[in-house]
Amino acid sequence: MKQRIFIMFLLAFLLAVACLPKYRVKADEALVITKQPEDVVVSYPDGASFSVEVSDPDAVDSYHWYMMDKEGQVFDLEGQSAATDTLIIPSTQRDNGTLEFYCVITDKNGNEIESEHGHLDMDNTEDSKPVFYVGEYALEPGDSIDLAKVELPDGTPLGSGTVSFAENATDLEIADLDFDNSRVMAGLITAPNVGLGLVYDAPEPEYNVTFVGENRIMNTYYDFDYNLGGIPFDFYIVGDNEKPLVNLIGDGTLTIINGANALRIIGDLMIDIDITVQQTRELYADGLVAENMMIAPGHKLDLEVFGTAIRASGNLYVKDSEVQIKAHAPHISMGMAAKNIVQGDNSMNLEHATIDIHAATDPEVSPHVGTLSGFFSFGDFMVSDNSQLSFDIDVKEGEELYVSNVMGICAANGSLDDSSISIKIDTPLIFNAFGVYTDEYFTLVNCDMDVDVHTNGGAYGIAPEGDFGAEKSTVNVDVSAYTDYGDIGCYGIMCQNAAFLLTDPAHTVTSHAENGIAIGCNLNDINDDEVVYEEGYEAQNFFFRDPSTACISPKDNTINLGNVPQDEGEERYYIHVETIYDKNDTTKPATDVAFGYRDPAEDPEGSSEEASEPEESSKEESSEEENSSEEQNGADTQKAGVPQWVWPVALAAGIALIVVIVKLIMKGKKKQ
């Protein structure tokens, strides 16, 4: 019995011992820091390290390093070495001032102790040397880095591929790079660059970056207190106002995944490689940003962004290249700012270019007010040589309006030649949508253009503030509104003056505005006289394909199509009318208008030239001429403002009056 009790007691004792912690810090034996972080002075861009030592390392549960900047703001470092007893900072960046680093140590009982602050200073803050960063690692001219040979605290390599910075300080080579910036040592806050980037003070006028093989930069390191997401590829000027040219060249490709700006050049940019931008997180993120930007011939850009895909602060040039854009519109900008997907602040010059934009919005995610534009330019907007543009925007269901305006093309002026343009806007939750809006003129030469705008209210197809011209082109406009906003209606084509030169049966201009105005112009002066269309204006080579459409210039009319003077000495054919109205209801503007080409050699009698100097005739003769012209030309040639039923009624009344007069005369004779 005693032996059994002893065995049970022994088992209980062993079980209790097994349940005790392996290491235990007694209350009177708390951790003590035996070595504090020391102050360090380095030469930019050299790195530094800070370390701590404690009395009982086995009792430590965690190390956690913090940084305090020169303004006293404290940042939580989350890199790999920031969780060890030695904080490693691979390189420094200039003009940071004095930085302070300290460590908070937690034991296995949850007790915390804080180290003293170690100070980091630089002895060459005025040095203007160029430095190219690969994440936290600094390359000076003549240096190179093989990412596979850089071992991190966990024993794994930094990545793969090589980056070389030439001794001339202007040429770089990036070969077979695979870099994920989540694999940093100290953390994003201490990293001079989250991806790849050059920092310089006195830049050279031109830099060449050669890409070899397939290159990939992955940005997965986010810290919202410090940086929304970083810039994976960056050329950044510290203090000089000079803006260099950066050439991206070579036979390789570049893929950038995530980033507040995927690629940003503080200067001019020439892209002579294929670039892919992908966004895997729903954060505000732009694509390619530069001063002046040129996309060289023969390349493809495939850009997915939660922001502006391409922005040139100056001019944008795209030649013989293809650009595919998927834009998640709710994040295109912050607050009240405009939201533009392709933007050239001064001008866009597109030659043999293909740009395809698909934008999708979800108002429940991030509703803002402002303007969303597919193509935006403060200066001229030009397209030539068989370029193809398309802009397609969808809006998901939601309770709040996303923006107050959507525009396919928004520019100061537009001149599009030999191009194909498709603009589709279907936004049931948005009011005021424009297929095309320009501050001044908008012209098409040898173009095919389709504009479909269907929005909550206020739908505009082509609406320049100045003149609109279509020469040797085919234009189709269709607009409608989901709801009636009263004065905010539907307008197919609205401008100051309209000039159409149609020289082939294939050339047509059609406009449909559901419950609105198919075509109209906003003239300052209105003709006070009632002038029949053929009497006052010439239109030799076009006709109205829709027989229900007519043109006149009634007095005090407010729906106008502008007077465009004919060029002296040139055989040009314009629309020279002030009103397009529905013959079936002369009080309403036409909602469907279709213009087509007519061969002058086949012009029937009663054309505009013959009717420009009408002879005096009876009302009956005038009515017969008008009916004949209407049958052959498909246009209403009646007297301005006089409905068709007036002439038969007037004729019958005249006959009746003659009969009455004859009877009175006969009656008088009988009395005599």
Describe the structure.
- The protein is built from four helices and 51 strands.
- It has a 17-stranded parallel β-barrel. Strands 2, 5, 6, 8, 9 and 10 form a six-stranded mixed sheet that branches. It has a four-stranded antiparallel sheet with strand order 46-48-49-50.
- It is elongated, with a radius of gyration of 38 Å.
- Mean pLDDT is 76; it is low at 4-28, 332-336, 526-541, 552-577 and 603-647.
- Radius of gyration (Å): 38 Å
Count of β-strands: 51
Q: What's the pLDDT, averaged over the residues?
A: 76
Strand content: 35-45%
| Rough outline | elongated
Oligomer: single chain
Enumerate the spans where pLDDT stays under 50 for 5 or more consecutive residues: 4-28, 332-336, 526-541, 552-577, 603-647
Helix content: under 10%
Structural class: mainly beta
End-to-end CA span: 167 Å
> Main beta sheet: strand number and arrangement?
17 strands, parallel, barrel
Total DSSP helices = 4
In terms of topology, how is this protein built?
Blueprint lengths: L1 H18 L13 E3 L4 E3 L5 E4 L1 E2 L5 E9 L5 E3 L9 E4 L9 E9 L4 E3 L3 E5 L8 E4 L2 E3 L4 E3 L12 E7 L5 E10 L15 E5 L5 E7 L1 E5 L14 E5 L7 E5 L3 E5 L3 E5 L2 E4 L2 E5 L7 E5 L2 E3 L4 E6 L4 E3 L2 E5 L2 E7 L10 E6 L2 E5 L2 E8 L9 E14 L3 E8 L9 E13 L2 E19 L3 E4 L2 E17 L3 E4 L2 E8 L8 E6 L2 E4 L6 E6 L3 E5 L9 E2 H4 L5 E3 L4 E5 L26 E3 L2 E5 L2 E6 L21 H15 L12 H26 L1
Parallel strand pairs: 2-10, 15-17, 15-18, 16-19, 17-20, 18-21, 19-22, 20-23, 21-24, 22-25, 23-26, 24-27, 25-28, 26-29, 27-30, 28-31, 29-32, 30-33, 31-34, 32-34, 33-35, 34-36, 35-37, 36-37, 36-38, 37-39, 38-40, 39-41, 39-42, 40-43, 41-44, 42-45
Antiparallel strand pairs: 1-4, 3-7, 5-6, 5-8, 8-9, 8-10, 11-12, 11-16, 13-14, 14-15, 44-51, 46-48, 47-51, 48-49, 49-50
